[in-house]
Amino acid sequence: MTQNVRVRFAPSPTGPLHIGGVRTALFNYLFAKKHKGDFILRIEDTDQNRYVEGAEQYIIDALNWCGMPFDEGVGKEGNYGPYRQSERKHLYKQYADELIASGNAYYAFDTAETLDFHRKDHEAKGKTFIYNWHNRLKLSNSLSLSDEDVQAKIDAGEDYVIRFKSPQDETLHLKDSIRGDIKIDTNILDDKVLFKSDGMPTYHLANIVDDHLMEITHVIRGEEWLPSLALHYQLYQAFGWKAPEFAHLPLILKPTGKGKLSKRDGDKLGFPVFPLQWTDPKTNDVSRGYKEDGYFPEAMVNFLAFLGWNPGTEQEIFNMEALINAFELERVNKSGARFDPDKTKWFNHHYMQEQSNDALAELFKPVVDAKLNDIANETGSSLSNDIDVNYIALVIGLIKERATFISDFWNLSHFFFTAPISYDEKASKKAFKEDTKAILSQILTLVENTEDFTVESLQTSIKGWITEQEIGFGKVMMPLRLALVGALQGPDVFDIMFMIGKAESIKRIDAVLNIL
Predict the structure, then answer these.
(1) In Å, what is the CA distance from 123 to each residue of 116, 193, 462?
(2) Is this structure's pTM higher than 0.70?
(3) Which of 380, 325, 317, 395 is closest to 350 using CA atoms?
(4) What is the C-alpha R_g of the chain?
(5) 256-313: per-residue pLDDT in tens?
(6) Is the separation of the CB atoms in 247 and 218 below 8 Å?
(7) φ, ψ (nearest 5 deg) of residue 112
(8) Alpha helices of 215-319 — where are they, by DSSP H?
(9) Rounded distance between C-alpha atoms, residue 402 and residue 409, angstroms
(10) Please, what is the angle between helix 389-399 and helix 357-379, to 10°?
């Protein structure tokens, strides 16, 4: 590629960014970085009626959290700004006029009532009303009216729109990087409105003009824009501009594989569909986000990459650098990609294991402090709620293999921070037998007499005694674990004892002896 690659992500600030939009941004970002190009964020906010306060900043925050910072855009002004369409609206009228002058567009004065009448009339006859070559000379526009009549209407201030004049009896040969060659019969195309009566461009005109002026080389967008490809391609032709290369990404489907993934699916099945938590400014309704649900951005990026793309190998784990190196548009699928909530958790579990214990401890510490504070308030005890973060890191090293989210840590590790106040009933029936008290009394003596309180020393002492007494390991280890944890869960018993210390181990064994 000789020309510098420039791609754009162009969302509308009408609410939170759906993960389908994040996936579109990701594929644009990967393609740009693969080819040492530029990734541009353009905010398409010409429809002020649908503008939602805070949505623009949400989009920027989401891209940054995902590790996809844009090179140019709002707040990062380059040489092609401004990057909000609302600040570019002075540009578009001249291009609409240019299309009229070249005969590729025309003024249309039809009222909403007239068009509605024609639609209903066609429906009654079992037809669909299309405003194009077969009826435009019968309607009120600059193709059917004289130049004088047209000018008179404009001078009188009559409302009009500017429509594209789609050709008759032609076949368009279009190319899509993902879908290959596409043929379109122009006779089925309608004359789309390019400029509205309120003086604002439609998406189609603004989009093409902006892409041209920003020197966009590749348009990578969702397949919902595929029906617009013919018009956009014709607009490039009409202006005499070189069209960018187009690529239309497949839909992200519901977990069932039927239909487009929506927020309702996430609410129903218990997973977010937005990267960050979103609070609706009008209703104050809160929508869950992947960040707040405990997903790592690397995990989200990795699973999103596999929604519609595959590397052609068995490899599934890709950090951003590896994705950039491996990404090819030609390896993006045409068919929809089924969203699998369990697979997203699988990715998060993997990235959890790759995090350093120290980094995870910093994230988990506020949870520990809050939990201990709650327990102290409930029980009236004086638990320390300022646990050393280095101790927390050691605990995480013992339990994180079984965790998918940081929110899993407390249930896996609470006994490292506070003694059990009750014992699992089912486990107690299984572990506590007639001779358990005598056995635990012997274990307590061994613990009290252990000077070098290490994992190795405790193992040697207690396992040696069990072997000497010819007792089954379960008869000793189950009640011992129950005394320390309150349930038959957790990492190695000797690791737990070493971590909580000699005094606390004695205290917990003694507590069980008192209730037996």
Answers:
(1) 11, 21, 86
(2) yes
(3) 317
(4) 33
(5) 999 999 989 998 999 999 999 999 999 999 999 999 999 999 999 999 999 999 999 9
(6) yes
(7) -60, -35
(8) 229-239, 263-269, 297-305
(9) 9
(10) 100
